[in-house]
């Protein structure tokens, strides 16, 4: 089983890379804690109620809440599947949990793709982002406009702007990333797992770099 972690600031394109990898290769389980949390909020579950305020402010949801949803999902997950972790881990405690949990299944992280992204690119991407209510596909008012304004190309669903995609909350998310998540870069570098990529290039050339790495490992 292959285990890939996508690491990078908000707006670095982790979700886009995950979508592309799933489409191109298949077989990956996309494990996105942000999406899982938004689903819990939408369904008004206990986890959702605990997480909602943190998410609105752009703060991290406490580790114990994350650990609960992650363990639940890994238990029900396919043991044989390849995993793509997106937006998780975000703290050292979460990184420890992931290592332990994988070790318990006789597995480990194969690659950590770090998507380095300049701040002005992040701001431009996030303030213009629009997401489909029904299928989760991502668009951008300028970079990736849908064919019909406000309507998803893939499924015809309604596009909306995430509550945390406003300038003030984005600035806070970036601070939180710098304070709590950036230190994971050196952790994975020391373990020899880190692959640093420039996320400010076309998606196709970014994917070509990622594919080359993945293939070098399976050769
Ligand atoms: P982005 O990477 O663009 O910030 P996400 O969808 O990954 O978007 O996360 C949205 C919000 O969900 C975060 O700001 C945070 O509040 C919460 N969240 C997601 N994943 C985690 C995590 N692993 N640990 C703590 N909070 C998380
Ligand atoms: Zn859609």
Task: Outline the fold blueprint.
Elements: E1 3-7, H1 14-25, E2 28-32, H2 33-42, H3 46-57, H4 63-76, E3 82-86, H5 92-103, E4 111-116, H6 119-127, E5 129-132, E6 138-140, E7 159-160, H7 167-181, H8 183-190, E8 194-198, H9 203-218
Parallel strand pairs: 1-3, 1-4, 2-3, 4-8
Antiparallel strand pairs: 5-6, 5-7
Helix pairs in contact: 2-3, 4-5
The protein binds adenosine-5'-diphosphate and zinc ion (ZN).
Structure overview:
The protein has 219 residues and is an alpha/beta fold. It has a domain of 143 residues: P-loop containing nucleotide triphosphate hydrolases (Rossmann fold), CATH 3.40.50.300. 49% of the residues lie in helices and 16% in strands. The protein is built from 9 helices and 8 strands. A 5-stranded parallel β-sheet has the order 2-3-1-4-8, with helices on both faces. Strand 5 and strand 6 form a beta hairpin. Helix 4 packs parallel to helix 5. The model has no long low-confidence stretch (mean pLDDT 93). The site of zinc ion has 8 residues, from loops. Zinc ion binds next to loops.
Concise synopsis of the structure shown:
The protein is 49% helix and 16% strand. The chain is an alpha/beta fold.
